């Protein structure tokens, strides 16, 4: 055995690698065994069930070296998704890197709740024109384009690097030709292109600047600040988007926002003040209002 109980390179088995990594993680990361399994699957190109079926399977020297490096990176705080370079969203696998926010389960719920609102408000056969503002890795735009191939989908981000990730995800998933990509600030590119939409959906930055330092290290130190920083009170992005909505929304259009904790009431108030109707908040699985919907009349 090497230092700190680390097995020597020659003949390290799946069982030994997992035991070492789990011990190395203990007290440092959440769910150490699960993290070790995910990293070993990535380093070895295996499925999780193969680890359990063949615990005495030996790692190659290259697999063992990559696994050790990844284990140390995760112990030091780097999110698993960035190390592995991918994340699951709506039963699809998306590429992610440090240019884009890691998609959360709440955003899957945003898609589900938005589809429920669309079903209630439009004929299911009618193709819609929609925009995803602040698309990041493209998970919202690509998911909706896949679920509704007749929709006209526009995706906007101010980061060229994020758009490159989103476009690569669309290409890998066979969706690039169904999505129009625009670089620019929130609604501005839609205004410049003269695009009017039936649905505008956005998960914008909503962390108050004073709260950034208190975020978990894996978020604060690795995820793009541009996708987190919502200004002094966390609501700057909503103000800027809402200000421009009358210039891009068709009559009867639906607006769908993901919001931070304790922000739903204020975002609803801003929408009502701007002339929107039927404003409502919906809760996430923890019962916290995290999604706001409104209609343009």
Automatic annotation (TrEMBL):
Q: Which UniProt keywords apply?
A: Methyltransferase, S-adenosyl-L-methionine, Transferase
Its Enzyme Commission number?
2.1.1.297
Q: Which GO terms describe its molecular function?
A: nucleic acid binding; peptide chain release factor N(5)-glutamine methyltransferase activity
Q: Which domain of life is it from?
A: Bacteria
Record GO biological process: methylation
Q: Which residues bind S-adenosyl-L-methionine?
A: 134-138, 157, 186, 203
Pfam families annotated for this entry?
MTS (PF05175), PrmC_N (PF17827)
Q: Which residues form a coiled coil?
A: none
Catalytic function, reaction form: L-glutaminyl-[peptide chain release factor] + S-adenosyl-L-methionine = N(5)-methyl-L-glutaminyl-[peptide chain release factor] + S-adenosyl-L-homocysteine + H(+)
Which positions fall inside the Release factor glutamine methyltransferase N-terminal domain? Answer: 16-85
- Methyltransferase small domain boundaries: 129-211
Name the residues that bind substrate.
Answer: 203-206
Q: What class of enzyme is it?
A: transferase
Q: Which InterPro entries match?
A: DNA_methylase_N6_adenine_CS, HemK-like, N5-glutamine_MTase, PrmC_N, RF_methyltr_PrmC, SAM-dependent_MTases_sf, Small_mtfrase_dom
Q: What does this protein do?
A: Methylates the class 1 translation termination release factors RF1/PrfA and RF2/PrfB on the glutamine residue of the universally conserved GGQ motif.
Q: Which family does it belong to?
A: Belongs to the protein N5-glutamine methyltransferase family. PrmC subfamily.
Q: Return the HAMAP family for the record.
A: RF_methyltr_PrmC
Protein name (Swiss-Prot/TrEMBL): Release factor glutamine methyltransferase
Q: Which organism is it from?
A: Bacillus thermozeamaize
